[in-house]
């Protein structure tokens, strides 16, 4: 079984518009930059328009990338979506977020993949609130719950529970601090709109606010960049792993994995694409997923 090549891509207005809403055809160049990595799994954000017009843009993307869309993960007006290589992994289930929660979760649903093991791998592509920190905390809590529960849903009695799951995408909130991380921006360096969900405290005494990252940490998710930074003593590599991925000076694009998936992950890289965010690339070797590292089982 070979490693799965994974990517998280903020497409920046779908690759078809400028910030002012005028047309901008970045889609061919965007797909070329993604395809150059040969991914088996791609989670996208800001793909609101790909499902419109009977999925015309989504069909173009599938053709250019040679990947299959999880069709129900794309919907008009929804930011996130998922594409995968059916020769490398088999989609067994897609659980769409429904009801009153659907407009507020920061993700469209949870995919469950068969990767040739006794247990599944669940995947959530997230694009969390950049306007409300309390809402982003709720979104992170919901994603944590669904990713873990869907991962082990189909297991028969007595089968291993691995809770093998990944949550990745544009988290928008600051990550946990790390001594090797580049300096974070000062409040006076950011637009006033950004201060509501990245800082706390009164004017002049602001501090970086990290409750979203703290929730993931408390719920036993591993921030892959922090994990790899702790494993290397090379300051240059640490700075690269922890560098900002988008405008604004914070590393908002992240990959979180459950305990059992940590030994299976490697190779986190920032990939330059025609977007205002760098894409993330990493690998997961399913054969190295270790269910004995799961510390909390759902019963």
TrEMBL record:
Transmembrane segments: none annotated. GO terms for molecular function: catalytic activity. Pfam families: Exo_endo_phos (PF03372). Residues 7-277 form the Endonuclease/exonuclease/phosphatase domain. This is Endonuclease/exonuclease/phosphatase domain-containing protein.
């Amino acid at each position: 079984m070979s490693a799965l090549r994974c990517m998280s891509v903020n497409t920046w207005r779908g690759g078809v518009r400028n910030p002012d809403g005028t047309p901008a055809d970045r889609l061919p160049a965007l797909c070329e930059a993604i395809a150059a990595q040969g991914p088996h799994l791609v989670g996208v954000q800001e793909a609101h328009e790909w499902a419109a017009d009977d999925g015309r843009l989504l069909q173009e993307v599938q053709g250019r990338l040679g990947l299959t869309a999880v069709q129900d993960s794309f919907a008009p007006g929804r930011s996130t979506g998922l594409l995968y290589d059916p020769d490398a992994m088999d989609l067994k289930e897609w659980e769409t977020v429904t009801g009153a929660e659907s407009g507020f979760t920061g993700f469209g649903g949870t995919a469950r993949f068969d990767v040739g093991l006794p247990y599944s791998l669940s995947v959530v592509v997230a694009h969390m609130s950049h306007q409300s920190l309390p809402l982003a905390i709720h979104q992170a809590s919901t994603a944590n719950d669904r990713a873990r529960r869907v991962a082990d849903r189909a297991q028969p009695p007595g089968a291993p529970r691995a809770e093998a799951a990944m949550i990745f995408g544009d988290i928008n909130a600051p990550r946990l601090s790390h001594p090797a991380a580049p300096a974070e921006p000062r409040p006076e360096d950011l637009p006033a709109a950004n201060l509501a969900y990245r800082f706390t405290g009164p004017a002049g005494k602001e501090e970086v606010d990290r409750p979203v990252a703290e929730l993931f940490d408390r719920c036993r998710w591993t921030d892959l960049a922090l994990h790899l930074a702790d494993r290397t003593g090379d300051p240059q590599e640490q700075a690269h792993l922890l560098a900002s991925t988008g405008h604004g000076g914070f590393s908002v694009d992240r990959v979180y994995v459950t305990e059992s998936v940590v030994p299976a992950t490697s190779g986190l890289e920032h990939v330059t694409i025609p977007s205002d965010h760098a894409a993330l690339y990493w690998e997961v070797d399913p054969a190295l997923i270790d269910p004995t590292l799961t510390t909390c089982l759902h019963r």
